[in-house]
Amino acid sequence: MRLTSLLLALCLAGTTTFAQKVKYSKEDIKKMETYLFNEGFNTPSPKKTSTIILKDGTTYKGFCNKIETKKGQIYEVAIKDSATKKNANFNAEQISEMYVYPSNAEKIAKVAKYMGNIRNFGTKKLTKNTNNDRIYFVNQTVSLKNKKDDKEFLMQVINPGFDDIISVYHDPRAKETTGFSVMGSPQLGGGVIKSYYVKKRDKIMWLHKDDFEDNYDFLFGDNAEFMKKYPKNSVEWDYFSFLVNAYTDMNNG
Asked: Where is the signal peptide (predicted)?
């Protein structure tokens, strides 16, 4: 009797889960696949004025002529002061925020990469690869890939327009899903970034696509309307930027 009841319960649970799955239209899927994050840049321009704001409120403006990184993340910056012409070095522990411009060399490389993948034409904006605006970095204490000791780094915020609940940071070491090409033609498929650093409330973590489902409830589970519209059994990692944006909009009314 107990076994029969248990099997019935499991069957009902499976049926309920199946019933909760949402089928989206092609138009909806195209919208969800659109990449809304800013492009991640790793190299500041040494020819444009950078701004560094220290934790004590002091502001420095100058040309960023040297950066030190660990696993791609910035932990030390050197700038030549635009007024005094003197060099100044700062550790990430001293810095609250930093604003820099992307280097032309990296922008050119990103444009070439964009043009080399057909998928980009429908999901990303080329203008984000040629961005002339300042890039925003903020001090965060993080464990690199959730494995290393916590350390302060300057991390690029890639969702600055919708980061008030969930902040997403560029992972300079992130890999991309693979596609294929024929005889040197532009790549078909692939090109989806596999990992970011993500912060919600006081928790910041390295989020890999393989761990997306396990962390879905933490990221979005406190909004019942969102979970009903975008249950985790109906969405994919490819939609991540859209989901963060939609969740933020729903929470902000």
From this structure: 1-19
